[in-house]
Amino acid sequence: MAMTLFNGFYLVVTIMISFSLFFRTSLCSEITESPSYAPKPLSSYEKYLSECASKLKPQKCGKQIFKSVFIGKIAVSNKCCHNLVNDVGKTCHFDMTKYLAESPKFAKHKKQILHRAVKVWHHCTQLNSNLVTNE
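Request: output the structure for the sequence above.
Response:
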């Protein structure tokens, strides 16, 4: 009788260990096969835009220009206008604006954003040309 109990107990333990190993390995394989949440590499265009953004110095100029274009009613300082016109340039300014304006967060207001980007550019080029002629 003791041998029967021991064999029954051994069978239950063996089944439990088998199920435990089965669940662990199946869960581990699911974890290793899950998609990676690491950021994907930047495309060449995104690298270009990143280089454009890095030209906005100091950082407050980037924030100022962003708020002026995407929010509106915020003036861009002389220093930041000078940075935009002379360091960033027209192509980078409009490419960055278009890229962000097409994102889901801003797409609804794309037309107004692009209009403000043109206004900011014209304001800054006018301000910059006045500064150059006054020197």
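The chain has two domains: 1-32, 44-134.
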